[in-house]
Design a protein that fits this description.
The structure holds two protein chains of two kinds. By secondary structure, chain A is of the alpha/beta class. Chain A has twelve helices and 15 strands. The N and C termini of chain A lie far apart (about 90 Å). Chain B is mainly α.
């Protein structure tokens, strides 16, 4: 039997060589990538030219959550200015420079994931974002796996801090806030019995929030006589409303995003509904004013922030907000974005002062920062806050506000109706 | 029972009227070129924003030039008409950039589909850069219907006054367009081009001019629709026309590609189908509407009033 190489054998050898080359290339790339992994690099000293730590912010600057993202960008920007000013005046107390890196996380899960991955490649020490709870469930696990602290400024759905040790939030979850507005509606009219509920069925946040609203109603002995499911982006509610109005509701509860919910309020009023309206956190933005205009008047909402809170940090926030050229009072989402930046900034400075950032890699710095973040107490525009060991915010003060529109229905204000202090929590 | 039926009919007609208006825009272009203009939804958005600016509205804080506006503040009706002319011009620009170069090269219709989609995306993004993504209420929008009540009650059924106005204007536009197509010389010329582009040219009809006319008219329809819907539900962001554009596309197929009566019937049927969904299953509204579309196409592949064009050899 001869052992001469056939043309087929030569092709096989060629393929093997090619496969070996490819494997070598992949291995080399992986090794190079590993050595270039920013998390493995030691942190430069604070005084070095490149000693600033980078905080990444991934927020929705495009897509249908853009309305929230623009408010958040403003809040983070103002907090950055405020923090830089403090550091300039008292460098000993704020020894580690901090730099902000902002990226558009759009309004969908894939964009948030891509923005998170980009931020990790940039070597951020911690992340603020993403804007929507639905995005957080998709993107936060990536940061968790890489050990990067995340502070959510606006994710209020159940289960966000439970994604992992590195995930926390400054936005109190709906189950704490939402029932307060129901209580207010009942205080105004203790005889009300007929309740209708509208919610966006294809929005993770709204479906979670409406369950909390229903629980709050049940706790008060009320059972919704009609539950209407709407869709994100829907703007014509004529059919849903005319199905509900013959049942003569005395209270309408809405859980939806700002634009859809604003339209729903307007159409409810236009079609003759005169009872009370309670709305969820999705409508917690002045951006609803141009949508529901004069028909926004009287809408009740529970909030985690009130511009009327008289504390030094809130006064500083209000002053910077007005300087920025923004009109009216700042919305909750802007205050929460400020708070997200503030807690990270202050945790970094505490850690730096104690020497916790000296001679460690970025990965270790991230781990220490998370521990420091969770152990601190912060005086923010939201009031004093701290965290539970699993990253849930503990906030002592909540507010119920009523929308009051200016004559002409072009502009309005969330007017404080009632402040609620929750016992045993807070700073 | 009668009250409930009337309510359903009113709900369906109010929604269906807008769908028909959007579908007519598609129909005009499809009938002459045999392609779908995917930029129609973006033109719908443009119509809304143009009406807003012409009424004296100003760019919001998230726009390119916050606080800037046009030095005019027209009443709603006039602003709507001027905005319709603006969208007609924009539609002509879309034709010039996205359709004409490919038509001259005898390109496949699929290529025009993609270029029009691109034109629509660019237009919506330009709107977002210029105006920001925030919602806008028409200046004095609440007073645009001054003296009229917010709602009308017809035999116990409720309808918002703005929706009655919207339905009336949609119906007027549809009737005028149909009369023009049937009775006028240029309307007949457009129909001749729709029948056969080359033969119409041999008969002395300026087919290219007719194509431009179709684009201008579809732009007018998009502008009217955008302005009216903007008044009804405010401008909810640059993408608000896209959802109407998609629904209009479904109506176009349902009614029969290229059929004017089909677009009207399809729009009303789609509106009624959505209104017929029981209140407790309102989340299934879209699904039911598209299930009807699917069923109609199974029974009548050419759509309700469309014809299946045999391939010519």
């Amino acid at each position: 039997m001869t052992s001469d190489a056939t043309p087929l054998d030569q092709r096989q050898r060629g393929s093997l060589r090619l496969a070996a080359l490819l494997a070598a290339a992949v291995g080399a790339t992986a090794l190079l990538g590993r050595s270039a992994d920013p998390a493995a690099q030691p942190l430069p000293p604070a005084s070095a030219p490149d000693g600033a730590l980078t905080l990444g912010a991934v927020i929705a600057l495009t897509g249908n959550a853009n309305l929230y993202g623009q408010d958040q960008r403003l809040g983070i920007g103002l907090a950055e200015r405020w923090a830089a000013d403090r550091a300039r005046r008292d460098p000993a107390s704020f020894p580690r420079p901090v730099r902000l890196s902002l990226e558009d996380g759009a309004s969908d899960e894939q964009s948030a994931i891509a923005a998170f991955q980009l931020m990790l490649r940039r070597g951020v020490v911690a992340l603020i974002g993403p804007t929507l709870s639905q995005q957080a469930f998709a993107a936060d696990p990536i940061a968790q796996r890489r050990g990067v602290p995340v502070v959510a400024p606006s994710n209020t759905a159940k289960g966000i801090p439970q994604i992992g040790h590195f995930i926390s939030r400054v936005s109190a979850q709906s189950s704490v806030i939402a029932p307060l507005s129901i209580e207010e509606a009942l205080q105004r009219d203790p005889t009300l019995r007929r309740v209708a509920v509208f919610y966006a069925q294809d929005d993770a946040y709204s479906t979670a929030e409406v369950a909390i609203f229903k629980q709050a109603l049940t706790a008060k002995g009320l059972r919704p006589l009609s539950v209407q499911r709407t869709l994100l982006g829907q703007n014509d509610f004529q059919s849903a409303i005319t199905a509900v109005l013959p049942q003569r509701p005395e209270l309408v509860v809405i859980s939806a995003q700002a634009v859809d919910g604003g339209n729903l309020i307007r159409q409810l009023r236009e079609l003759g509904y005169r009872g009370q309206i309670v709305v969820g956190n999705g409508l917690n933005t002045p951006n609803i004013y141009p949508i529901c205009q004069r028909w926004c008047d009287g809408v009740l909402i529970a909030q985690a922030y009130s511009p009327d809170l008289d504390t030094p940090v809130n006064r500083a926030f209000l002053a910077l907000y007005r300087q920025s050229g923004a009109r009216g009072a700042p919305p909750q989402i802007t205050a929460q974005a400020w708070a997200a930046y503030q807690v990270l900034f202050e945790a970094i400075q505490r850690l730096q002062r104690r020497g916790g950032l000296q001679g460690v890699t970025l990965a270790e710095a991230r781990r220490r920062l998370m521990t420091e973040l969770l152990s601190g107490r912060y005086d923010t525009p939201l009031g004093p806050i701290r965290f539970t060991p699993d990253g849930e915010v503990i906030q002592g003060r909540f507010f119920v506000a009523e929308v009051r529109m200016a004559p002409g229905g072009r502009d309005g204000k969330f007017t404080l109706v009632r402040e609620r202090s929750l016992k045993g929590v807070g700073g | 029972m009668m009250e409930s039926l009337l309510q359903t009919l009113l709900n369906g007609a109010a929604t269906g009227g807008v769908y028909a208006l959007v579908a007519l825009g598609y129909t005009l272009i499809f009938s002459v070129l045999g392609v779908i203009n995917f930029a129609q939804g973006a033109l719908f958005s443009l119509g809304g924003y143009a009406t807003y600016l012409l009424m004296g509205g100003r760019i919001g804080v998230n726009g390119a030039w916050p606080g800037l506006g046009l030095p005019v503040a027209l009443p709603f009706t006039l602003a709507l008409l001027v905005a319709a002319l603006v969208t007609a011009l924009a539609s002509l620009l879309v034709e010039r950039l996205a359709f004409a170069p490919l038509r001259r090269r005898g390109a496949e219709p699929l290529q025009s589909l993609i270029t029009s989609l691109g034109a629509g995306v660019v237009l919506v993004n330009l709107l977002q850069i210029l105006m920001g993504a925030e919602g806008y209420a028409f200046p004095a929008g609440a007073e645009a219907l001054a003296g009229l009540p917010d709602m009308l009650i017809l035999a116990g059924a409720r309808i918002r006054t703005i929706q009655v106005l919207l339905l009336a204007i949609c119906a007027g536009a549809v009737v005028l367009l149909s009369l023009w197509l049937e009775r006028s010389r240029s309307g007949k010329a457009l129909r001749a081009v729709a029948e056969d582009f080359t033969t119409a040219r041999l008969l002395g009809i300026d087919s290219d001019a007719m194509v431009r006319l179709a684009f201008a008219l579809s732009g007018v329809l998009a502008g009217l629709g955008g302005g009216l819907v903007g008044l009804s539900v405010s401008l909810t962001g640059p993408y608000f026309g896209i959802s109407y554009g998609l629904k209009g596309l479904a109506v176009l197929v349902l009614g029969g590609l290229g059929s004017v009566p089909g677009a009207i019937a399809g729009g009303l049927l789609m509106g009624l189908a959505e209104a017929l969904v029981p209140a407790d299953a309102s989340g299934w509204r879209e699904a039911l509407a598209f299930a009807i579309l699917f069923a109609v196409l199974l029974l009548r592949p050419g759509g309700l009033l469309g014809r299946i064009q045999p391939d010519k050899v």
